[in-house]
Amino acid sequence: MSGDWWVLVLAALPVLALLVAVVVRSSPAAADPESLSAEPEDRPLPAVVANPIRIEPGTRRRIESVCASLGWAPPLWLETTVEDPGTGQARIAIERGADVVLACGGDGTVRAVAQALAGTGVAMGLVPAGTGNLLARTLGNPDNVTAAVRVALTGDDRKIDVGRVRVDDGDEEHVFLVMAGTGFDAAIMESTPEALKVRVGPLAYVISGLRAMRGRRTRVSLTLDGDQPVRRRTRTVLVGNSGTLLGGLVLMPRATVDDGVLDVVNIAPKTLAGWVAVAGRVISRRGDGNARVEHWQARSIVIEAEAPQPSQLDGDPIGDATRLEIRVEPAALVMRVADVPPADAPDPG
User: Fold this and answer.
1) Class of domain 40-154
2) Which of 114, 138, 162, 215 has the fewest Cβ atoms nearer than 10 Å?
């Protein structure tokens, strides 16, 4: 009998076929192949970290509508708070398995979300809703909510550098994506009231800047890539991953967000005429440097001031600091962009 096992198998085939037919006919999905669709848990999950103070009415509804139209799951909606401007919310999004995290707010919200996403490989999208929106402008992303969400869900991935800063020998490293600075620039950010920014937009920084122009220069020491310190008098020292300012002005013409280095500029005018000369160099996009505006590039920078100076990261005041240790982390953050530029192409200004 053992040699005839295949005969038994052949005899059982009709019975097996009958059983399969019964099971298939009893399946509603099998009766209508068009009814087959992805289960909700199979759809990609977007998360939105939103600053409720910044977003306009109807923003959440528009974001949800775009997600639905593109076949994504309803977004995980996480609002920032005064105590947590976005980092904790982004970490929750990562833990929940989000495929992309949208930062919906100003540059501060973007920086806080990047603090959590840098180094994880989880993509970050931008839905600009602030005064400056400098990173979105640098990357050429749209500022319209619907268009920005479409880019975040369907755009290309671009890996960009992240700046990391340690303040006064502290234990924690903070990230920045656009610029870190100390001196005049940070004083403007610190002295610009939030209510004024809401009322007049970027003009608020101009008003605060005019008030701060009469300040005195201070002595600083700059150490670039571990070389001998460079000593200067300064009004402000800026370290940029991007060189673009409000209004499309380019302070650091060589800066690119994915070149693996940071750009450094020291601005040291003494008088009003000196400030006019600085403005002229910025408008002309000259990067050769002179006594009032000097440029460098480095992978690590240490700024030491003779006295505590106002300091800022991506426009967020972080208080007075005497020492900033800054380094670049190349290609640490995945950004969703409308288009990835060719290698060595300058960032749009």
Assistant:
1) alpha beta
2) 215
